[in-house]
Design a protein that fits this description.
Helix content: 25-40%
Distance between the termini: 29 Å
Shape: globular
Structural class: alpha/beta
Strand content: 15-25%
Bound molecules: adenosine-5'-monophosphate-propyl ester
């Protein structure tokens, strides 16, 4: 039975615990349905009321949704606000000044706590420092920083002065960083000397130097360096300066720059099926509204909670559920520098115990790898830790298989914590389809139902609604406040990618397939329907990896496909034709290693193919098109049962069957 077939037959239903329901922000399915009806009956009124109630506006908006230039939708456009004001100043006024905002857990276990007052002062000093360099509203600032208080402060400081940040994950290579700096037109890069992960010091500043040396980044006038380790780094006079020196004499207050709700808060690059990564542009007002609301609705955040999202600030999850959402609702959160397996695979559970974490949000990949570790090393089994502080669990980034869900439910949640399996994307800004923990009965492997106000549907190739039980294409029928506004610098690509004419230009295309259960109406995501892979919850375009491979002088041709993987969800399998004869044995292994390192240098270590197979050619149709569906079967080491009559060179299949 295929995974999808077994998910369709998944019949276990877990009701939310009664005590959770009675205290929940959204309590019971009737409340959920009433909210959905309110949105359906008066869509703009629904959002306008939420935006007035949940955000502080410097100037109130008079128009909620502007569809006149669809699909370039605008929300609350004439309203003015500042995101950092909403995340910080508002907390000082609300009596949260002395409340812990951030519990920073360093790689080595050292803890630093920061109150909202302290965070406010740090952000203001950083913001004043940026201003002193001449950085101003609408300038783009690239942030290439480790998981740190300073990373969050840097993002908030940009928001405070109206600069648009673009965070680049610290695992991306110099070349990827350079491409993003150029595309964004950044005037400054904020970085650190090193990052520390799993006991190792990994360079950041040196990679920034390398990126800038690649050329084309002349707009970058400043590189600000946070001293994390103190290891030697080179500073270029006139361009580079230490963060601590920049901020030391700055005032601890900084008047926020009031911006339109549509002002771009950030650009975040993500992979698509074609071309270079896309700069997903997000707004200020609509984005922040959804970050705050989903903290309340999906994470049911209460004043006493200790929230922990294990994502990195380099991904959208770390934007919405570390840098913005938790602060917008005055929560206490953990910011974690390390990795789940250092000093051992009990690190997550120990950290939950240590800081009495109550809401925990992580990726299925992490859960699956920790299941394996717990089986292999009983000392780090979660049963060895006091996890009684937990009241809610969440997952994000990829489908969670029912077995992993059950393990999480039993071993981490001890059968008393609801699990929110949150489906969303870089482009959606925040959660889209997810259980509400005090309302929705849960089914392992299903993200259940769209959130109130989110009009998801499943359609066929022509954009027509499909009946439940029939898998199809996941779309969103109405614009929502936190949605992507455009692709930075490429509005045409935005339209083509997300609102294609084939679907009438009005449906948002998520790029995922989905199926809805006939009885419950619950959604199950069946995976990407484009050439995007999901490796450990990281999004990678097959085209990007292919381009990186063929950029190597010894490579003639390459095709990349995803292969199901027990731990990482999918893994990268590359089929490569060299310009020389096909290598075998040790030589093939050596060249494969060189190519993997090459991809790490071109894109970043996360894009390294797990497997590389060499052939004299690739399976092609008579017209020369690579038959990727056959490669997917070969990657899985399955027998080919498909029709191969259009295949020009069937003999090649035998050769490509062999893994190294
Ligand atoms: O395929 C879906 C998968 O991750 C993609 C979005 O990736 P990214 O933009 O990097 O954002 C990840 C964090 C929000 C989606 O198109 N995905 C995300 N969450 C889930 C999921 N697939 C299944 N279930 C989920 N809960």
């Amino acid at each position: 039975m295929s995974e999808i077939e077994s998910l369709k037959q998944e019949s276990r239903i877990f009701e939310p615990p009664a005590d959770f329901v009675s205290n929940a922000t959204i309590s019971g399915m009737d409340t959920y349905r009433a909210m959905c009806s309110a949105a359906a009956n008066d869509y703009e009124g629904f959002w306008a009321a939420l935006a007035r109630k949940n955000l502080s506006w410097h100037r109130p908006f008079t128009k909620t949704l502007d569809e006149s230039e669809a699909p370039f939708y605008k929300w609350f456009e004439d309203g003015e606000l500042n995101v950092s004001y909403n995340c910080l100043d508002r907390n000082l006024q609300n009596g949260n000044a002395d409340k812990t905002a951030i519990i920073f857990e360093a790689d080595d276990g050292k803890v630093t706590k920061l109150t909202y007052q302290e965070l406010y002062e740090r952000v203001c000093k950083f913001a004043n420092g940026l201003k002193s360099l001449g950085i101003k509203k609408s300038d783009r600032v690239v942030i290439y920083m480790p998981m740190s208080i300073e990373g969050v402060v840097a993002m908030q400081a940009c928001a405070r002065i109206g600069a648009t940040h673009s965070v680049v994950f610290g695992g991306f290579s110099a070349k990827s960083l350079q491409e993003r700096i150029i595309d964004a037109g950044a005037v400054a890069v904020l970085t650190a000397d090193q990052q520390v992960r799993g006991g190792k010091h990994l360079p950041l500043k040196a990679i920034v130097d390398e990126a800038l040396a690649l050329g084309g980044c002349e707009a970058v006038k400043h590189v600000v360096v946070y001293k994390r380790t103190g290891d030697a780094v080179k500073l270029t006079a006139g361009r580079d300066l230490w963060l601590h020196e920049l901020v030391e004499k700055q005032a601890a207050a900084c008047e926020p720059e009031w911006v339109s709700a549509e002002h771009p808060l950030f650009i975040l690059y993500t992979s698509g099926s074609t071309g270079t990564p896309k700069g997903v542009q997000h707004s200020s007002g609509g984005y922040l509204l959804w970050a705050a609301l989903t903290m309340k609705w999906v994470f049911d955040i209460k004043p006493a909670d200790v929230f922990w999202c294990t994502a990195d600030i380099g991904w959208v999850t770390g934007h919405t559920y570390i840098a913005y959402g938790p602060l917008a609702v005055g929560a206490t959160q953990i910011v974690f520098e390390g990795i789940p397996t250092y000093p051992n695979a009990g690190r997550f559970w120990e950290t939950i115990q240590k800081h009495k974490t109550s809401v925990f949000y992580t990726a299925p990949t992490a859960i699956r790898s920790l299941i394996k570790a717990a089986d292999a090393t009983p000392e780090v089994h979660p049963s060895k830790y006091d996890l009684s502080s937990l009241r809610l669990l969440g997952t994000v980034g990829e489908p969670i298989n029912p077995e992993a869900w059950m393990w999480y439910y039993k071993n981490i949640g001890r059968e008393k914590c609801p699990i929110v399996d949150t489906f969303w994307q870089t482009e959606t800004g925040g959660h889209m389809i997810s259980p509400l923990p005090g309302a929705t009965p849960m089914v392992p492997g299903s993200c259940t139902l769209p959130l109130p106000g989110i009009m998801t549907a499943i359609v066929d190739e022509a954009g027509h609604d499909l009946p439940d039980g029939q898998g199809g294409i996941l779309v969103v029928k109405r614009p929502w406040p936190a949605m992507i506004r455009t692709i930075w610098g490429d509005p045409e690509r935005f339209k083509k990618s997300y609102f294609p004419e084939e679907f009438g230009g009005k449906l948002y295309l998520a790029g995922d397939g989905a199926i809805r259960n006939e009885k419950t109406g619950y959604f199950t995501i069946t995976g990407r329907i484009d050439d995007v892979l999901n490796v450990s919850g990281h999004r990678m375009g097959t085209m990007e990896i292919e381009s990186a491979l063929v950029a190597n002088p010894i490579v003639a041709e390459a095709a990349v496909v995803g292969k199901p993987d027990d731990t990482t969800g999918e893994s990268i399998c590359a089929f490569v034709v060299l310009k020389r004869s096909r290598p075998t044995g040790d030589e093939a292994r050596q060249i494969a290693k060189e190519l993997r390192d090459w991809v790490a240098k071109e894109i970043g270590p996360i894009a390294k193919p797990k497997e590389i197979r060499f052939g004299d050619n690739l399976p092609k149709t008579r017209s020369g098109k690579i038959m990727r569906r056959l490669l997917r079967v070969l990657a899985k080491n399955e027998e080919i049962s498909q029709d191969i009559s259009t295949l020009e060179n069937p003999a090649i299949l035998e050769q490509l069957k062999q893994a190294l």
